Amino acid sequence: MSQILSGPVPKRHYSVGYGLAVFFLFLVLLAVLLPAYLSHYDPLNADPLNAMLPSSWQHWLGTDQLGRDVLTRIIYGSRYSLLISLASMAVAVSIGSMLGLLAGLAKGPLDEFISRAVDVISAFPDLLLALMLIAFTGPGTTNLIFALGVASIPRFTRVVRAQTFLVMSSGYVEQAKTFGLTRRVLIWRHVLPHAVAHVPALATLGLGTAIIGTAGLSFLGMGPQPPTAEWGLMLAEGRNYLRNAWWIAVWPGVAITLTVISVNTLGRYWQAAFEGKQP
Amino acid sequence: MSVESTFTSQPRPKAGHSPLSALGGRIVRRIFSGALVLWAAVTLSFISVYLAPGDIVSLLIGEQVRTPEIEAAIRAEWGLDKPLYLQYLHYLWRILHGDFGRSYLLNTDVSALILNQLWPTLKLTALALVVSLVFAVVMAVATAHRRWGRRVAGSLELLLASTPSFWLGIVLLSVFSFTLRWFPVAGDRSFSSLVLPALSLGLAQGAVVAQVLRRGLEDALDEPFALTLRAWGVDNLTVRLRHALRHAALPAVTLTGWLIGGLLSGAVITEQVFGRPGLGKITVDAVLGKDLPVVLAVAIFSAFVYVVMSTLVDILYLLIDPRLRGGDDLTETPS
To answer: How many CA atoms, within 13 angstroms, populate the side-chain half-sphere of residue B248?
Structure first.
């Protein structure tokens, strides 16, 4: 890519928001990898004597209806919420980009078929498509990943297909053809990297949506089942105790929102940086 | 011949191929492609029932107890003793007549069930749509090209767009229903029970629309025509509301499909948060009870709403912006 750029690359300014986002995601990563180092409570062990306590020095964010520490459950819950969203994005990115590349390279009837199929999938609203798939497969973590992943395939297919068209008709590919490169080398070494160039930024922004989707579906009871600590599930359980203990439902939502804001900030920043603009 | 085409040296429209008939042709083509997508969606639902593991009777019956009478009823309804292509044609015919079959779990007619539950969901999504559009227009018009205004608004919009709508609903409930007691906690009795659900559903969508609208508005305000209007002494608000907003609205219109999908999806969860009756409630109950006829019907119905609305918007787009009438379909060409 660098040889195409002419002139000096403008110096990038990292904003405070960017720094905060990176810092928060670092904390989330710590929570995913080493939850036991961040909290000495057990996320699943009920302690009815300490149920529904407001925040204190012992329990920073209070305790839930069974006396479990809310902060601890948020820390342990990050693993489910994040890994489900990441896995579903991985499904969407790999299948979506492959279909897009295939459509862009094949043109003709195959392209027409893939594009129409993608149109049909995106005619169903995301969440309803995921619910439909779960109705067939039943609730559960794996099925949730699959359902969310399939629902976000279309946008990757569309972007990669359009980008493949653009790259295939560009001057450098034409020149590479005159060098007598085989189709395989041409596609793998010269077309593919540029065709999927937009995907990382798109996937980061998609991850934000996927985190909300994961939480939403497990809020409805379609994902991990109680007593698992998962952010959407915690919200659903806390919904019933709003009158007496608002913190049970509110804090997991804060965790979701902060994570999504951080991911979106990063995604936008990368997108802007990729397009050569200052964010 | 209008002034515009003489100046822009476009090829004259050929005789017998007037711009109006081209417009009509494009509208017909758009409607046709929408119908094609719907047909494929219905076919997809048919195929998925047949490809799913397990036999069809136990798939459709959900968690209902299996009796010979119910099994016979399903066999008769789906024509399981006939060849596959007849079953398919029969299915298409039924859906075309708005007959989505029976829910064996609830022992009711699915179409009647959906029609019964449609009104509360329609009220909710319509009010949420109003909330999101009003929010977007107010935010965009008030803060476009204003340094501090757009900074504050930008942060607020990022916050709202990143907030799960159901969590916003829980916070609103906790503040306005449980603490301040301004609004009812659950149910669907009066207009006041609709306010919080519509806010929590509409604001997140409105935030994204506001961002697109403001970008469009700022571009429009940089155009020479905005400067000319200012020079004429037209006041700022009029320039923004009456002149620039029209230009800004066009890119925002492309979000309609996304907006409708988001509202339909969000309504499912919002109804659950606020304990409201509606399509979302029956969908969640149907998924958890494996009541497949209801799930398929809701999915096809929402695809129908989505396709009809986006087709209407595309046609509206053609009518608003004459530049799109000629040439190729903008949304189809890779660029």
So the answer is: 28
Residues of B whose CB is below 8 A from A279: none
Radius of gyration from C-alpha coordinates of chain B: 25
Residues 6+ apart with CB under 8 A from B176: B182, B183, B196
* CA Rg value for chain A: 22
Q: Out of A124, A139, A238, whose CB is closest to B299?
A: A124
Contact map slice: A 43-102 vs B, CB within 8 A: none
- Give the residue among B324, B321, B333, B253 at the shortest CA–CA distance from B26: B324
- How many angstroms separate the CA atoms of A234 and A222, rounded? 13
| Helix B192-221 vs helix B256-273: crossing angle, to nearest 10 | 150
Structure tokens at B285: 């109950």
Q: In the predicted model, is pLDDT for residue B301 greater than 80?
A: yes
Mean of pLDDT values over B34-56: 83
Closest CA to B62 of A135, A215, A279: A135
pLDDT digits (tens, 9 = 90+) for B224-254: 888 888 888 888 888 888 888 888 887 777 7
Interface subset of B 307-326, CB within 8 angstroms of A? 307
Retrieve residue A51's tokens: 């149920």
CB-based contact, A131 to chain B, within 8 Å: yes
The alpha carbon dihedral of B180, B182, B183, B185 has a sign of positive
pLDDT band at B4 (very low <50, low <70, confident <90, very high): very low
- Out of 1.10.3730.10, 1.10.3720.10, 1.25.40.10, 3.40.50.720, the CATH code matching A63-277 is 1.10.3720.10
Q: Is the pLDDT of residue A3 over 60?
A: no
* Spatial distance between the Cα atoms of A58 and A41, rounded to a whole number of angstroms: 10
Token pair of A254, please?
């804060």
Measured distance CA(B240)–CA(B246) in Å, rounded: 9
The per-residue pLDDT for B330 is 44
Taking residues A137-162, report their average pLDDT.
89
> Residue A107 has which token pair?
């043109």
CA distance B149 to B141: 11
On the question of a cis peptide bond just before residue A227, with omega within 30 degrees of 0, the verdict is: yes
pLDDT tens digits for range A192-226: 888 888 888 888 888 988 999 999 998 998 888 88
By C-alpha distance, the chain B residue nearest A237 is B273
C-alpha distance across the termini of chain A, in Å:
20
CA distance B106 to B49: 19
B80 near A CB under 8 A: no
| Cα separations in angstroms, A168 against A103, A180, B281, B331 | 12, 15, 48, 19
B241 vs A: CB within 8 A:
no
Nearest CA distance, B68 vs chain A (angstrom): 23
Angle of the A108-123 helix axis to the B19-51 helix axis, nearest 10: 80
Q: Give the pair of three-digit tokens for residue B208.
A: 């994204």
Q: Model confidence over A31-67: pLDDT tens digits?
A: 888 888 877 777 877 777 777 777 777 777 888 888 7
pLDDT for the residue B328 = 45
B33: nearest CA in chain A? A116
Tokens read off for B11: 């090829």
Question: Span B60-76, mean pLDDT?
Answer: 75
